[in-house]
């Protein structure tokens, strides 16, 4: 079990953006410990389809299924497959992107370099992080760490990993963390552990997190009914950039033929922005929940335009 509860980020802001109403149907694409799901079900006499690829989350969520029966349906799947998890159009789709504190706290899941455990990092099935770093060549590993971890020393770290695996298999979290720390020692005053960005990169790659997000956003166009709301909370720039670009390409952009012409709305856009700028956590919440400091919320409303 987790050593600390998973505190949902920006709960009040998420509910304000989603605006739950009676008899409506919402999808919580990242169920986790059920924080958003419970809040949505408490906010209105509505229905929720909650999705999570993690079998542990599904098992732990059965108590909520019983508590909110028959308004809650819990589905084990990837949120990128949301279109296959719902029947008909829905009124809202919410995503909280990233790893949960429960997963970080479970040493046997291999997400954290702070605890000894198997180098796994899988939220569901597929290739583990240990299997990935055992087969990938040095150049591709460096590119992966740079792309998904935004790690400037990716080449030095990749070289160290490849050299270490030539001597013995890299199978545990602390084993990998020590290799990275030796290759890129922590500088004086640096609060970020040298392995932080590499572990992030491997987790994203193992679970295809950015691909999942892209597929979920694309699906939102078809599953949301007119007036339906898309609400996404992200925690780092890679995720937020994907959401920002998706909304930029699919919202009611203002267009004009030249600088003298009057501006007009693009009436063919499938979404309109709920907020022109990102919503961020209050300073009070950030003090209580450090995870909220980097969180950004973006939201949009389905226009009903066919695409």
Folded structure, characterized:
With 307 residues, the protein is of the alpha/beta class. It is built from 13 helices and 10 strands. Strands 1, 2, 3, 4, 5, 8, 9 and 10 form an 8-stranded mixed sheet that branches. It has a two-stranded antiparallel ribbon with strand order 6-7. The radius of gyration is 21 Å and the shape is globular.
Total beta strands: 10
CATH superfamily of the largest domain: Vaccinia Virus protein VP39
Largest sheet entry: 8 strands, mixed
Number of helices: 13
The CATH architecture designation of the largest domain is 3-Layer(aba) Sandwich
What is the CATH third-level topology name of the largest domain? Answer: Rossmann fold
Structure characteristics:
alpha/beta; single chain; globular; 2 domains; 8-stranded mixed beta sheet; two-stranded antiparallel sheet; 307 residues
Brief overview:
This protein has helices at 11-18, 35-43, 55-60, 62-67, 101-105, 129-135, 138-149, 154-167, 173-183, 196-207, 209-223, 237-250, 283-288, and strands at 25-28, 47-52, 72-76, 90-96, 224-234, 254-255, 264-265, 271-273, 279-280, 296-302. The chain is of the alpha/beta class and 307 residues long.
